[in-house]
Design brief:
It is built from twelve helices and twelve strands. It is α/β, with parallel strands linked by helices. The strands form two sheets. Strands 1, 5, 6, 7, 8, 9, 10, 11 and 12 form a nine-stranded mixed sheet that branches. A three-stranded antiparallel sheet has the order 2-3-4. A hairpin with a 2-residue loop joins β3 (about 65) and β4 (about 70).
Amino acid sequence: MRPTPDTKTPEPVRRARRRRQTAAAVATALVLVAAGCGSQQSDGRFLGTGEVDVATHKDLPGMSLFENYTYSGFDNALFLDLEAWLENEEGVQVTRNADVSSAARIAKLQSGDADLVIASFSITPDRMREIDFVGPYLTTSQGFLVRTESGIRSHADLTGKRVCTWDGTTSRVALSELKNVVSVGATDAAACVQKLRDGHTDAVSTDQTLLYGFAQHHARTDDLLVVPDLTVGAPQHYGIGLAKGHPEDCRRLAEWLKNYVGGREWQGNFREALPLLVEEQPDWISRHKPEDDLIDAHSCVDRPKT
């Protein structure tokens, strides 16, 4: 049955009413479309799971330290910001798998024991062939931590000195460039620093961000010094590690990371985590903050883009 024409309502009023009804229908349709798109982007799964497990260190002051039941450091701040994004925007739960060793980072990802690794993880061509990276979120150089009274200030001063590095890192490879030093091994960074404090080694060599973290952590009990501008090897680019096979999620994570690095959070987190480095390196932002093109060149690829 056809509706009875509304002959009592003036035509201009009827036209205005029809326009309002049409606009309401269009608005409703747009809301439904937006809701549909949102459900596709945030379906409660990321990297193929609804619960993302993130492996971190817990023994690196300034980067990722667990002490007095509290986490601190720059990597920890990144973890917290990433956790908020994954849970609020991607709809997945996040757990922390703490205390991954440097040597076990790739194995954790390949075995599925961890979905992401945030652990001062340097991006290298060899590692990029085994896993994917998103980053870098920080760039640094390999330097030397010494006792202040040691007198070590140059490469020449390292001749015959005992320098500690540890397994599973790029630090040991870079140190091999210096033929005049005696390489001393240890299980991890904390063990190397303890050897230095005890006088069993003359220096510790690893990334300057890590060294500044240890120097500020032991400032009250030990007189330790990161030697200014004494470096070895190529720049180190820290990335978030993930297993291969998730290209869309990897690229989405890379876009989030660019927003994070380009925002105020990155600078605030860095300043809070590494105040000694900020004090001693006035150009710390230009030294350590990566640009978008560097992130694009190293994220979700098998080799760095040139």
